[in-house]
Write a sequence for this structure.
């Protein structure tokens, strides 16, 4: 994932004008500007999600398994992209573990702020690609919601 200029986490990508590009061609053009060596195909497509609000956007999500060498190459390319330091502050690896305290790792990561549909897409990918066991994923999501409930309950008791 990427840390964006506005402090939100998101995935690399951008807008594609379907009049001039297929989804994959447009995505590869945008990714080429920021990441360089990754080419996605229709086989890498996972899902689409319509965002609601004043500016309706259809977010198409693609995922691809990489070797460690490919990941390192992408991370190095990202630092040298034209958007680094302006639109994108850096790459972030998602922790696929939960520490013994049941908050460290993935639960803490999920407590961050995400842009648009990025959190939904991340959770969907982790589940559908079997990257995190479903029960561990549910525990991580639940752990991020407990502090909010406790704070609300505590605030309600103090009123």
């Amino acid at each position: 994932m990427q840390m964006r200029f506005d402090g939100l986490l998101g995935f690399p990508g951008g807008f594609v004008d379907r009049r001039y590009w297929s989804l994959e061609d447009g995505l590869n053009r945008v990714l080429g500007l920021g990441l360089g060596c990754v080419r996605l195909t229709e086989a890498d497509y996972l899902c689409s999600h319509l965002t609601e609000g004043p500016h309706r956007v259809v977010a198409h999500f693609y995922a691809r398994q990489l070797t460690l060498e490919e990941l390192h190459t992408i991370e190095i390319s990202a630092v040298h992209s034209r958007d680094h330091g302006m639109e994108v502050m850096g790459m972030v690896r998602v922790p696929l573990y939960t520490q013994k305290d049941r908050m460290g790792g993935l639960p803490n990561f999920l407590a961050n702020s995400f842009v648009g549909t990025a959190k939904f897409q991340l959770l969907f990918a982790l589940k559908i690609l079997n990257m995190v066991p479903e029960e561990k994923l549910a525990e991580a999501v639940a752990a991020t919601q407990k502090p909010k409930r406790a704070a609300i309950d505590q605030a309600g008791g103090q009123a």
